[in-house]
Fold these 2 entries.
Entry 1:
Amino acid sequence: MYKTIKVKAPAKINLTLEVLGKRDDGYHNIKSIMQAISLYDYLTFSAKKAEKTKILLSGSSSEIPYNEKNLVYKAIDAFLRETGILADVTVYIEKNIPVEAGLAGGSADGAAALYAMNKLFDEPLDNMAIERLCSTLGSDLNFCLHGGTALCMGRGEDTQKTETPMIDVTLIKPLGFGISAKEAYTKFSYLPQEKKTPKNYTEKIIKGFNKKYLYNSLEAAVIDDYPELAEIKTKLPESMMSGSGPTFFVLQKNIPAVFNPEKFLVIDGLTSVNSGIETVC
C-alpha cells in the first residue's frame, strides 16, 4: 500500500558569499550567510516497498528534467541504495522557485526528497546519515534541509545555525538565461586579485545584521557579461546577486523601479523564514 507525504522546500538567498580559494577537488571554499525565504516548491511523494525499484517524476515546470538527471531522482536513488530498500516511488514537483537562478531550487528539492523518503519509510536513517547524503549530492543541500539562517563553510555543506533576521525580500530575475556555478566560479578566477580578496563581511553580519554588509564575490565576475544584470544594479544600486546568479534581491517588501515583465521576473512580498524542509500533510 502506498504511503504519501507532501512537503515544502524554501528557496535561499546569500546575504554574504565570500570565495576563499580553490580546493584540490576543483570546488571552492566559501564563507556565506545563507537565508531561507518564503518562496516554496511543493513536492508530493508516494511510495511503497516493491520487488524492484521504480522512480517516476512529474511536475508543473517544463524547465526541469523528470529523469535521473533531476536531483530529486538522485536523492531518492541515494536513499534507497543507502538503506537497501526496494521501492516504487512517484513524485510530483510543484515548481515555484525559478530554475538556474542562484536560489538553490534544485538543492531544496533534493533535500526535500531525502527528508520525505526518510519519513515515508519510518526514519531508517539518523540525522548524521541524512547530512552525509546531502553533502554527497551537492553543496547547498545541507543548508536547504534545515533552512533558517546559517553560516556555511567548506563547499557550503558545513553549516552552523545563526540568528534569523526578520527581513522583507524582493527578487528580480532576468528571463531567458541562467548562470551555472561553473561559469560564475570560472569567471571569478580571472578577476584581478583586489576584486577576489574577501571583505570579511560575513563575520560582521553575524555580529549584528546590517544591510551594508551584504556582499557576493561572484557578482563582479559576471555582471559585465550580462546587460540585464547591469540594468538591475543601475536601477537598484542596493541590490545584491544571490549565489551564482542571475537573480538579484533587495531587502524590501516591493520595489519602486520598473522592470519590463517580458525581460524580468519580479517576485515581491517575500520574507525571511526560520525553517527548512517541512511536512505539509
Entry 2:
Amino acid sequence: MNGFAPFLKKEFTESKRTYRAAIMLIVMLFFGIIGPLAAKFLPQMLEMLMPDNISAEDMGVLNLFMRDPSALDAWAQYFNNMSQIGIMMIAIMFSGALASEAGKGTLIPLLARGLSRPAAVVAKFVCQASLWTLFYAAAAAVTWGLTSALFPAQGYLTPQLFFSHFGLWLFGIFVLALTLFMSAILKNVIMVLLSMVGSWFVMAVVTSVYPSSARYNPLTLSTSATNIAATNQPGFYLPAVLITAALAAASLLAAVFAFKKRAL
C-alpha cells in the first residue's frame, strides 16, 4: 500500500481542519457527562415539577421515573445516547469519506504521484477508527468517573460492563467500515446515508420478525448494551461479536476492491 503514511497524515489533518474531530469529542464527552447527571438528578427534578393535584394513574407512571437511581441507570443513559445519536453521528460525519472526494476529484493529484487507492481507503478507515476509539474511551472514562462520584457505594465495574463497551465499540467499527464501503460504491452522501438507514432497518426488522436471531445480529450489540451490562450472560452475545467483526473486515476489504475499480 504505497502512500499509506501520507494519506493517514492527510486524514488526521483534515479531521482537525474541518473541526470534525473537535465536534466528535465535544458530543461524546457531553454524552459521558449527561448520563450520570440525568440518572442522579432527573427523578428529583420531576418531583419538584410535579403538580399537587396529580392523578393516581399519572403518579403511578411517574413513580417509574422517580425510583431511587443507581449506577446502572447512569450507564443506561450513556449507552442509549451513544448507541443512537453517537453511532448515527459517526455515520453522518464520515458518509462522504470517498464519495465526496471522488466526486470533487481531490484524490486525483495524489494518486497521480504514485500513491495507491488501497492506501487511501485504509488510511481513512484507520483515522476514523482511531478517532472513534479514542473519543469513545474518553467518554466512557468520564461516565465512569462521574458515576463513581455520584454513586460511590455501587462502583459498577464488572466484566459484563466491559463486554457492553466492547460490543458497542465494535458495532461502531462495523458502521465505519460499512459506511466506507457504501461511500466507495455510491455517488453522493445522500445515497450513502440512505443505504445506512436501510441497513439499520433491515437488521431491526430481522430481529423483530425472528427474535431468536438477536444473538447473531450486529445491531444487538448497540441496542442491548444496557441489558448486557445488567446480566451475567455476556457470552450469549458472543456470536454477534464474531459476526460483527467478520462483517467489519469484509466491508473494509470490499471498500478497498470497490474503490480500486471506481472511475475518478
